[in-house]
Write a structure and sequence with these properties.
This protein is mainly beta and 69 residues long. The protein is built from no helices and 4 strands. It has a 4-stranded antiparallel sheet, with no helix packed on it. The radius of gyration is 14 Å and the shape is globular. The model has no long low-confidence stretch (mean pLDDT 86).
Length: 69
């Protein structure tokens, strides 16, 4: 299967501890221009900005992506 991502900075490869078992998952793909993400342990959520739509989105461990603010 062909990957849906491209590694631009080779330093990223060092973050993949075991390439045979790593799993990279696309969490959301409807953005044209986004900033972030940042992980908030207290919320157990990944939060990023959707600039054109003037909102912040949140992904939680439930797998749901929703408007945060």
């Amino acid at each position: 299967m062909e990957h849906e991502y491209q590694i631009i900075d080779e330093g990223f490869r060092s973050l993949i501890l075991n390439p045979a078992t790593v799993h990279i998952e696309k969490l959301w793909s409807d953005g044209r221009w986004t900033e972030g993400p940042a992980y908030f342990p207290a919320h157990r959520a990944l939060i990023w900005s959707d600039i054109p739509n003037n909102r912040m989105l949140r992904w939680t461990e439930t797998g749901l992506t929703e408007t945060f603010r």
